[in-house]
């Protein structure tokens, strides 16, 4: 059966079909789809992710609200009017009023500024300390690297919340004390990540070759570090911000949050919690803003990491 | 000498669904395996050889793969494997047909003792006690020439070297005395000296146990000493098949020719540059009409990219699919070796 | 293995020492001196006793040595400055069990349900159950625990009256706090377990298992499950250690007389000695938990046991 005749020789082929053509370069070296640049490709994939885009839009709306909210409502966030205490939402007070008669919509807008600023500042501090230490460890190597990694191991093994509580208790309740307390021991992950990236780049052949030729390999590493790491950095940052916003809320709940008359979503929610059974709207609106903001950051972060690494998807 | 035919594959097709479209990884292959023989499937990466091997085992991902059409058959023991359920296949796997993989470093469960991994295979397929399974596992470790099998039984994969792990993989595969062993690039990830040891071990065990072996590889050097017959695949199709000596000394397809030219030989004139095949295999999402190799073929004719070439039979079991063997072919510049006609069928 | 535990314990002790020292000096440097202020208004005799015991008239570093000596030799965590005569040790003895109970029950649900849901999602990838679990996980991670607590208190406790809104005592009092405590953890365990299972499912050894004839159930049980648990164990360390820290807000929201509530109260009362004592207690638990988890890690992953045992 192997030798069965399968040739369909009854067909007659034109002679010209047997004209010699040889190798067809353009066909044999196809490159597949036209290549987009890496970031254009990332952006294309991100844009296709409906959830991530929804997150981005929600975040923009929330941010805009914290900026123009007080102007929109026309109320002052500190102005107390004892005649309109604890009102439910109405045409003049969209989110109702609190027990002092202050407009909750305005307070939520202003509180959002503090929450967002704390989230962003803490992330910035975390990231700055983390990348400087990570870069030093990765570039210097040797005992410096050992020392920094030991410190990381030590700091990473500290109980985060308790350290934050002690620090903010000692430092007080101002904006910068809060940022300091929340970000003081938060940089370990970033340090390890940056160091890991540098070591990885160091291992690449062209860097080794450059070093062997006596070139300043540090410059090369730094130059390649940024584009290589940018993706992971963006994901880390998006995922870190909601953590710090929640951290501030946590401190507000145990009475260590931002000092009045300043306020934040956490402080507003904590105040609302006490009167939950009778005036649930006081807790509802700040909580809603918190949830929307955190959800947005998560959706954006997820979308980013999917867009950066499509392998994970299939 | 009438050999017992243990596996017969007819018109096997495999297609994967992907984002870009359906990849036609295997596009109708026919071959067979006799008891106790070694059949090598050779080709570049992406030519469909591993997919063919996994299709026989039923190991391709179920969700996005289409295996075979109404004419396709993988006949084993009178049963068409394509038609079997996952459960029926599981009963066959490891017992009747076994497989070892390319990378022994990642192919063993890191948290399970070596011995238990061998014994598991025995336990699944036989109604025996754990003690008996352990005995068999230790016997298998001995068989694949691992020293101190009793000690080694209790160890974990990370305590074994790459070559040792591949021996363990072979022990797992052969523990139930299967009729067919599929070895997918069994030596590619190993050091050259270890490669020879592993191939020697596979050959010896094959003879002792009378197992049929399907050796999937891109390395013609590995094939030369081990295979009885060779199938050369390109772009999801068989381009040439025959006995090992046919393929090495009497090849009939330009692709086989190119493959062999690119193998370094000790006897060759070292002043000459080693032949290297230009270009890349075609995109199988949109498989080419005609011969898949045409765009890279020095001797391609117009017809090659229009019509699929017909089968030409040269000697018993030696076949090639190439238009050069048509009577009207333009054979200018084609090496004499390819052109020499054996007995041609149909003309 | 013995050497590894020893080394890990020594390391833990150093960590502890540093935490205690840092906390002590930080708190001593805190604005105002409530300790001195408090002592001033005490009766003469009480003042003398306190001064003698804690060396309040001496410089900070002297007080530090006295405190450390008391802590190490008698296990004395100190005494409240606000509520005279109440020692930190009493508070711990009376209230720690309550926090521990809630924390352990919640942790149990976190791990079991989280691992289970993560496995289900991974094994049914891209099917309905996977999508459902993933959406729930994102929501659960994004809703802060106090919001979740408020929802449960308002509806289950207040509107429908199924459980008490807050307080402590009967079995029913456990339901809401444990649910609030567990939900976030369940979500993160499920998320990690899903990822970890998916990556294990792509490993070559799972293909080997199938190639030797393991059916799906056996492949999952024998080859996928244990290997996907390895990263989960690392997560469990801080979780066990965080049992008490996690109780801060929940005990406050539900008025549960646990250690967390006392800690928060001490913080808002600026009861510095109480804060110091409880912080040290939390730190000790934390360090012990981390050591235990390291050992557990070795049990799950043989590579680590051997490597560290050498």
UniProtKB/TrEMBL annotation, chain A:
It is found in: Cell membrane. It comes from the Bacteria. It is a multi-pass membrane protein. Residues 112-301 form the ABC transmembrane type-1 domain. It holds the Pfam family BPD_transp_1. CDD domains: TM_PBP2. SUPFAM superfamilies: MetI-like. This is Oligopeptide transport system permease protein.
UniProtKB/TrEMBL annotation, chain B:
One of its GO terms (cellular component) is plasma membrane. It is found in: Cell membrane. Keywords: ATP-binding, Cell membrane, Membrane, Nucleotide-binding, Transport. Its main location: membrane. GO terms for molecular function: ATP binding; ATP hydrolysis activity. InterPro entries: AAA+_ATPase, ABC_Ni/Peptide_Import, ABC_transporter-like_ATP-bd, ABC_transporter-like_CS, Oligopep_ABC_C, P-loop_NTPase. GO terms for biological process: peptide transport. Residues 7-260 form the ABC transporter domain. It is a peripheral membrane protein. NCBIfam families: oligo_HPY. PANTHER family: DIPEPTIDE TRANSPORT ATP-BINDING PROTEIN DPPD, OLIGOPEPTIDE TRANSPORT ATP-BINDING PROTEIN APPD. Belongs to the ABC transporter superfamily. This is Oligopeptide transport system ATP-binding protein.
From TrEMBL, chain C:
One of its GO terms (cellular component) is plasma membrane. It holds the Pfam family BPD_transp_1. Its main location: membrane. It is found in: Cell membrane. It comes from the Bacteria. GO terms for biological process: transmembrane transport. Residues 96-297 form the ABC transmembrane type-1 domain. The chain crosses the membrane at residues 12-30, 102-123, 135-154, 174-192, 228-254, 274-300. InterPro entries: BPD_transp_1_N, MetI-like, MetI-like_sf. SUPFAM superfamilies: MetI-like. Keywords: Cell membrane, Membrane, Transmembrane, Transmembrane helix, Transport. It is a multi-pass membrane protein. Coiled coil: none annotated. Belongs to the binding-protein-dependent transport system permease family. This is Oligopeptide transport system permease protein. It comes from Alkaliphilus peptidifermentans DSM 18978. The lineage of its organism: Bacteria, Bacillati, Bacillota, Clostridia, Peptostreptococcales.
């Amino acid at each position: 059966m192997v030798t069965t005749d399968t040739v369909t020789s009854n067909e007659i082929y034109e002679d010209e079909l047997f004209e010699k053509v040889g190798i067809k370069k353009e066909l044999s070296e196809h490159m597949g789809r036209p290549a987009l640049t890496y970031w254009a490709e990332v952006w294309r994939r991100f844009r296709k992710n409906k959830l991530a885009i929804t997150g981005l839009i929600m975040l923009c709306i929330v941010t805009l609200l914290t900026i123009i909210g007080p102007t929109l409502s026309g109320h002052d966030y500190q102005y107390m009017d004892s005649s309109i205490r604890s009102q439910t939402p109405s045409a003049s007070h969209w989110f109702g009023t609190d027990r002092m008669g202050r407009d909750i919509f305005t307070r939520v807008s202003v509180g959002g500024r503090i929450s967002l600023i704390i989230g962003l500042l803490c992330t910035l501090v975390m990231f700055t300390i983390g990348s400087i230490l990570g870069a030093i460890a990765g570039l210097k190597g040797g005992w410096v690297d050992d020392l920094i990694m030991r410190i990381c191991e030590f700091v990473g093994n500290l109980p985060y919340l308790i350290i934050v509580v002690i620090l903010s208790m000692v430092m007080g309740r101002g904006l910068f004390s809060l940022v300091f307390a929340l970000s003081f021991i938060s940089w370990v992950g970033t340090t390890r990540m940056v160091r890991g990236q540098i070591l990885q780049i160091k291992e690449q052949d062209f860097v080794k070759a450059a070093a062997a030729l006596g070139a300043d390999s540090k410059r090369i590493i730094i130059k390649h570090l940024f584009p290589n790491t940018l993706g992971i950095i963006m994901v880390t940052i998006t995922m870190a911000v909601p953590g710090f916003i929640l951290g501030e809320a946590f401190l507000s709940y145990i009475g260590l949050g931002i000092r009045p008359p300043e306020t934040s979503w956490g402080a507003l929610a904590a105040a609302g919690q006490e009167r939950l059974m009778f005036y649930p709207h006081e807790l509802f609106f700040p909580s809603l803003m918190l949830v929307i903001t955190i959800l947005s950051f998560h959706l954006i972060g997820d979308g980013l990491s999917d867009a950066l690494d499509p392998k994970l998807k299939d | 000498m009438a050999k017992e035919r243990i596996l017969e594959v007819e018109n096997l097709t495999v297609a994967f669904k992907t984002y870009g479209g359906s990849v036609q990884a295997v596009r109708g292959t026919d071959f067979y395996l006799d008891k106790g023989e070694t059949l090598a499937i050779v080709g570049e990466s992406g030519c469909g050889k591993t997919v063919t091997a996994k299709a026989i085992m039923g190991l391709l991902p179920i969700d996005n793969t289409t295996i075979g059409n109404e004419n396709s058959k993988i006949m084993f023991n009178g049963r068409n494997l394509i038609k079997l359920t996952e459960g029926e296949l599981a009963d066959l796997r490891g017992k009747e047909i076994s497989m070892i993989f390319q990378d022994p470093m990642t192919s063993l469960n890191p948290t399970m003792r070596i011995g238990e991994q061998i014994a598991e295979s025995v336990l699944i397929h036989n109604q025996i006690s754990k003690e008996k399974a352990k005995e068999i596992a230790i016997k298998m470790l001995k068989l694949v020439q691992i020293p101190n099998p009793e000690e080694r039984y209790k160890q974990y994969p990370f305590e074994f070297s790459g070559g040792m792990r591949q021996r363990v993989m072979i022990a797992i595969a052969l523990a139930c005395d299967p009729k067919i062993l599929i070895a997918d690039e069994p030596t590619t990830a190993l050091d050259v000296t270890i490669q020879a040891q592993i191939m020697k071990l596979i050959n010896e065990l094959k003879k002792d146990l009378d197992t049929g072996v399907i050796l999937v590889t891109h390395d013609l050097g590995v094939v030369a000493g081990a295979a009885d017959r060779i199938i050369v695949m390109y772009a999801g199709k068989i381009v040439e098949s025959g006995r090992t000596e046919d393929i090495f000394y009497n090849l009939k397809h330009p692709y086989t020719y190119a493959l062999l030219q690119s193998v370094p030989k000790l006897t060759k004139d070292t002043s000459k540059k080693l032949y290297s095949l230009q270009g890349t295999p075609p995109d199988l999402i949109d498989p080419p009409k005609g011969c898949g190799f045409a765009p890279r073929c020095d001797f391609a004719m117009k017809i090659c990219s229009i019509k699929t070439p017909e089968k030409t039979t040269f000697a018993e079991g030696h076949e090639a699919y190439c238009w050069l063997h048509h009577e009207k072919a333009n054979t200018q510049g084609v090496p004499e070796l390819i052109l020499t006609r054996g007995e041609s069928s149909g003309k | 293995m013995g050497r590894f535990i020893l080394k890990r314990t020594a390391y833990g002790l150093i960590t502890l020492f540093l935490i205690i020292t840092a906390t002590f000096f930080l708190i001593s440097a805190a604005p105002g001196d409530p300790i001195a202020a408090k002592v001033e208004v005490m009766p003469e005799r009480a003042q003398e006793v306190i001064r003698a015991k804690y060396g309040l008239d001496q410089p900070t570093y002297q007080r530090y040595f006295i405190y450390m000596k008391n802590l190490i030799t008698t296990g004395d965590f100190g005494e409240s400055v606000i509520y005279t005569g109440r020692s930190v040790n009493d508070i711990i003895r009376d209230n720690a069990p309550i926090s521990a109970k809630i924390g352990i029950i919640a942790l149990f649900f976190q791990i079991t349900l989280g691992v289970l849901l993560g496995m289900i999602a991974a094994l049914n990838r891209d099917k309905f159950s996977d999508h459902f679990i993933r959406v729930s996980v994102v929501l659960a991670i994004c809703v802060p625990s106090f919001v979740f607590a408020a929802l449960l208190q308002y509806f289950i406790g207040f509107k429908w009256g199924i459980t008490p809104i807050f307080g402590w005592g009967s079995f029913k009092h456990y339901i809401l706090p444990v649910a609030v405590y567990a939900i976030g953890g369940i979500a993160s365990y499920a998320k990690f377990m899903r990822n970890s299972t998916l990556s294990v499912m792509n490993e070559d050894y799972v293909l080997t298992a199938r190639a030797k004839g393991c059916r799906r159930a056996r492949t999952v049980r024998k080859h996928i499950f244990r290997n996907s648990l390895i990263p989960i164990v690392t997560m469990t360390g801080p979780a066990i250690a965080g049992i008490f820290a996690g109780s801060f807000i929940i005990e406050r929201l539900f008025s549960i007389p646990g250690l967390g509530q006392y800690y928060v109260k001490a913080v808002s009362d600026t009861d510095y000695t109480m804060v110091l004592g409880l912080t040290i207690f939390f730190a000790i638990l934390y360090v012990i938990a981390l050591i235990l988890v390291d050992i557990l890690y070795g049990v799950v992953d043989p590579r680590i046991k051997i490597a560290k045992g050498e």
